[in-house]
Amino acid sequence: MKIRNIKRINHTIIEAKSKRMKLNIKHLIIATVLFFQFGCSGSWLELLPPSGLTREEFWQSKEDVQAVLMGTYSKFSTMDNLLFIHGEARADMVTDDINIDENIRKMMNGNIYSDNSFSKWQDFYTVINYCNEIIDNAPAVQDIDKTFSDYQLQGFMSEAYFLRSLSYFYLVRIFKDVPYITKPSETDDTKFYVTKTDGDAILDSITADLVEARKYLSDNYLSLMEIKGRASKEACDALLADIATMAIDYEAVIEHVSNIEISEKIELMPSSMWFENYYPGNSLESIFEFQMDERQNQQNKIYGLTNVNGRNFDPSATAIQLFARKYATEPFRGEDISIRKNGENDYTIWKYVGLAPDGSTTRPSSIQSGANWIVYRYADVLLMKAEALSQLGRFSEALSIINEIRERAGVPLIAIQNSPTAYEDAILEERALELAFEGKRWFDLVRMGRRNDFARKDQLVESIIRNVPSTQKRILGSKLTNPLGWYMPIFKDELERNLNLEQNPYYNR
Description:
globular, 6 strands, mainly alpha, 5% strand, single chain
């Protein structure tokens, strides 16, 4: 979709306004632009809104600011497939089936080049630019709309900072060093030749943004979908804890997770209700999730990736050995709940297609693509805290958390040798059991591989090559021995468009 087509549509809308139509033109413009920009290809620095409308038409009231903010959440929610693929495809809990995208299969086998479509970062930067538009334009709206309070302004901007920070956190984990852009584009033909910023510096910057934003995030969302689907103080703490876990700042991890515990707003679901995290979603355990409602034409892509007829992603041999009855007993997380057995050596990921934890009742067609994408829930952040505690040598506190989650799952409590490595292995396994197929596993393995100057790199390699064909094991193992190969390449079109960008070093060979 060419930007001039969007201009032509908006020109028609503006003409209608001049005829005094009884319609909220500003909001229709926003809806139109969001629709066309979400549905069409273009620069990764897409402009919202188009030039000529930024000041004159969009940013006139607090409702305009909120409309763009809600559009930003909506855009992020359409990326559930990317969050799943980048969090799971290269790890050890899923395997490919006959219909999987060939670019994903190449990722899984380590045959990744700069023409791989999943090395595109466009969608993340679209979200970032929408956030930058809000942060840059919202303060001036107060001069026009006298009902736009400081409290509302700071709240909206803090949500934009949260979504921008979440986008950058994904980008750093996927690509390592990326362009760090905090200002919106101002005209359609703006040329961006932005160099990359060190990933660790980006983490420092978004951490500072989040600490400040947390002060103003609302505690007064009215509906359950808003409470669980918009940035809250607890969601901010979860993201801060996740960033600190990656940055190996264990004291900060403990602080941020403790803030969630102290709030007493979030709790572990009882074992018999564990599946309610996925259906109907927005559970007591949920901290932040992207909302889907098929009845409102808000469909996820994860159903198509995981349902049995799709034949895209299947549970790997590792996942089957964790969950299948013939190998292990996981009464509230195992077979018929996390995975489903269809036949001999044929299993399906069940979390996103099931209506009940019985392995047989699937979501009816009216809601089959309606599973929310969970970004953070309580068990996730508690295990982050356990990891931080164990790395600091506070083993008994870490064990208490691990066993709390195991007790909830209805499995035996465990004892662990008092060493950081033993606890790391136990927590990795517990996270695999508890958070299977939730877009966490690849990042967990990479974090293990990076820790202590790559001391356990071989364990990461061993975990990943376990599931690939024997003909691929040596090749993939060799590629993974270079930690720079754990990141994706920059897509070739970006390098051609921006000559100041340098390819990630591993892919320059």
